[in-house]
Amino acid sequence: MYKIAVLPGDGIGPEIVPEAVKVLEVVGRRTGIEFQFTEALVGGVAIDARGQALPPETLDLCRQSDAVLLGAVGGPKWDALPPEERPETAALLPLRKELGLYANLRPAYLFEPLAEASPLKREIVAGTDLIIVRELTGGLYFGPKKREKTDTGEVAYDTMLYSTAEIERIARLAFEIARSRRCHLTSVDKANVLTSSRLWRDTVESLKGEFPEVTLEHMYVDNCAMQLVRRPAQFDVIVTENTFGDILSDQASVLTGSIGMLPSASIGGQVALYEPVHGSAPDIAGQQKANPLATILSAAMMLKYSFKMDGAAAAVEAAVGRVLAQGYRTADIYVPGTSLVGTAEMGALVRREL
Amino acid sequence: MYKIAVLPGDGIGPEIVPEAVKVLEVVGRRTGIEFQFTEALVGGVAIDARGQALPPETLDLCRQSDAVLLGAVGGPKWDALPPEERPETAALLPLRKELGLYANLRPAYLFEPLAEASPLKREIVAGTDLIIVRELTGGLYFGPKKREKTDTGEVAYDTMLYSTAEIERIARLAFEIARSRRCHLTSVDKANVLTSSRLWRDTVESLKGEFPEVTLEHMYVDNCAMQLVRRPAQFDVIVTENTFGDILSDQASVLTGSIGMLPSASIGGQVALYEPVHGSAPDIAGQQKANPLATILSAAMMLKYSFKMDGAAAAVEAAVGRVLAQGYRTADIYVPGTSLVGTAEMGALVRREL
Ligand SMILES: CC(C)[C@H](C(=O)O)[C@@H](O)C(=O)O
Ligand SMILES: CC(C)[C@H](C(=O)O)[C@@H](O)C(=O)O
Question: What are the pocket residues of ligand 1 if the criterion is a CB atom closer than 6 Å to any ligand atom?
Answer without folding.
Answer: A 88-89, 92-93, 246; B 192-193, 222
